[in-house]
Amino acid sequence: PSPTPHSFSFILSFSSHNTHNTHTFIMSGFTISFDLANDAGLAALNRFLEPRAFITGFTPCASDLVVFQAIGSAPDASKYPNVARYYKLIAGVSDKAKKGWKNPLDGLTSGASAAAGAGAGAGAGAGAGAGAAKKAAPAAADSDDDDSDDDLFGGDSDDDAAAAAKAKAKAAAAPAKKKKKKIEKTQLTFFVNPAEVPCDMDKMEEEIRAITIEGLVWGVEFGREDVAFGMVKMQPQCVIINDLVDTDAVYEAVQAIDLVGSVQPGTMNRL
């Protein structure tokens, strides 16, 4: 069925990490749909955004503009705090900065894009179309290159054929270009319990954010959850570069803070 003006869906690829075997990652993907015209859809999106600043984690992309358009207006913060925080965050970004958001999610469809026409949703759709055109351009260029190679090595005269054969032999003997290594990153969410109650949670967050490790970037917002009897549990979020820092180094640095009583692992998603 056609999406409504307040609905959207996309394909999310992620990896789950086995804490008992730090060398095992399981890659998978699935389609997520939200109908924001009803409370159930908003509640589902609220749960989805709990460990995330943006749809893909801590980095905004063009798809965030489509989701923002589908939400339509600021939701009830008391019922949907994560959606309200997300909507406020996107609304506070300048139009100039939003134009720089790239890399839309695969399979993103939204009724808001069609309903908005020439508005922000259409702009996001145009951005996605431009992205597709850019992806198609290298393929066309590769095809042109192949044709050029054929023209180069397909001369009619014997001299051209000999020159082409010599050029092919030289190219085959040349060392292969070294493939650039991909920088592997992991999105990390964990829980921090205070050493005593009451605890200055603002001070605790300040000291956690003061931790600087090469390859560690803290998230935009730390979650907080009331546990019982005045105790509040904090939920820090960060992204780490796997070759530079591991999760144990992050946990140990946080545990060393005087205000921290204990650190509990949460979720890890490979980016």
Overview of the structural elements:
41% of the residues lie in helices and 24% in strands. It has 271 residues and is α+β, with helices and mostly antiparallel strands. The model is unreliable at 13-28, 112-141 and 146-155 (pLDDT under 50).
Number of beta strands: 9
Q: What's the overall average pLDDT, rounded?
A: 75
Structural class: alpha+beta
Distance between termini?
31 Å
Residue stretches low in confidence (pLDDT < 50, at least 5 long) are 13-28, 112-141, 146-155
Query: Largest beta sheet, briefly?
Result: 4 strands, antiparallel
Globally, the shape reads flat
Count of alpha/pi helices: 9
Estimated radius of gyration: 25 Å
| Fraction of residues in H or I helices | 40-55%
Strand portion? 15-25%
- Element string (H = helix, E = strand): EEHHHHEHHHEHEEEEHE
Strand order of the largest sheet: 5-8-4-9
